[in-house]
């Protein structure tokens, strides 16, 4: 364990962060978080992970758990007694802790709303005391029911009605965005917001309804691939290593502070086409079944017909755009 991460710091901390001893990653044992932690360790950084393992897993960090520059704290943000000190002494904070998956969102809307706002508020307050730069990961869900062909960071947002718990996640993350930008304006906190579109890759689980790992698992076992709705709804998938590269570059870009960025792939595919591509790529004999939304989730379930990001702003600020084609993403995710 790195002694720099366990030694108590004087309570008389400076008001302006001058560069700390570590990077703090909330949700660092999750799918995306664990890949980010590996990348930062490879870059020579010391990392402190705060994760309650509710949807993440210590196994995700198995390859690096013995690294002396990594410290893992199993805790919710709100229960982490060391959080004020960890935030004060961090050179940067990545806030990735969040509820994941449509299944979990639909079934546990109250948990989604309470956890997202409370945890983010506590973290922002801790970061603001020393102006520790922070990147908040948001979601493409905030674009809601918009019928635009492509989504830009400055678009108006159209969220579904509160009677549909499916939209609770979008509302919770949008509230996080408003809160973070309010801290940026009123507390001068250096904040960057990243709206992640569908991110896939190794370690992602289908346990919470994630479509690609669910399709891959079915194709491997010879079971039918269950496509919800009519299968014509489309998405763009970003490979996790591309997403991590974008996050790392945003951390290093001071001009990105106070800005919102889409991060995701731009190769659009319908869910029916995706299922067919998975079957073909894996050489599977599985069939494809269309399952009505009311059987998959609940009566009245609402979904977005398409979700494609514009990523020109990301390229303009950090000179990065998605690199990995969909067929390769499927192959790499399947392992």
What does this structure look like?
- The chain is an alpha/beta fold.
- It has a single domain, classed as NAD(P)-binding Rossmann-like Domain (Rossmann fold, 3-Layer(aba) Sandwich).
- Helix content is 35%, strand content 16%.
- The strands form four sheets. The chain has a seven-stranded parallel β-sheet, sandwiched between helices.
- β5, α5 and β6 (191-196) form a beta-alpha-beta unit.
- α4 runs parallel beside α5.
Question: How many DSSP E strands?
Answer: 13
Q: Classify the fold: give the CATH topology.
A: Rossmann fold
Strand percentage: 15-25%
CATH homologous superfamily heading: NAD(P)-binding Rossmann-like Domain
CATH architecture: 3-Layer(aba) Sandwich
Total domains, how many?
A: 1
Strand arrangement within the widest β-sheet reads 3-2-1-4-5-6-11
What is the alpha-carbon Rg in Å? 20 Å
Q: Runs with pLDDT <50, length 5+?
A: 1-14
Oligomer: single chain
The CA-CA distance between the termini, in Å, is 32 Å
Category from helices, strands and their pairing: alpha/beta
Number of helices: 11
Helix content: 25-40%
Defining key terms:
335 residues, alpha/beta, Rossmann fold, seven-stranded parallel β-sheet, two-stranded parallel sheet, 11 helices
Topology of helices and strands:
Blueprint: E1 22-26, H1 31-42, E2 47-51, E3 70-74, H2 83-88, E4 90-95, H3 102-107, H4 109-128, E5 134-139, H5 168-186, E6 191-196, E7 199-200, H6 211-221, E8 225-228, E9 234-236, E10 238-239, H7 240-251, E11 260-263, E12 268-270, H8 271-282, E13 288-291, H9 293-296, H10 312-318, H11 326-334
Parallel strand pairs: 1-2, 1-4, 2-3, 4-5, 5-6, 6-11, 7-10, 8-13
Antiparallel strand pairs: 9-12
Helix pairs in contact: 1-7, 4-5, 6-8, 8-11
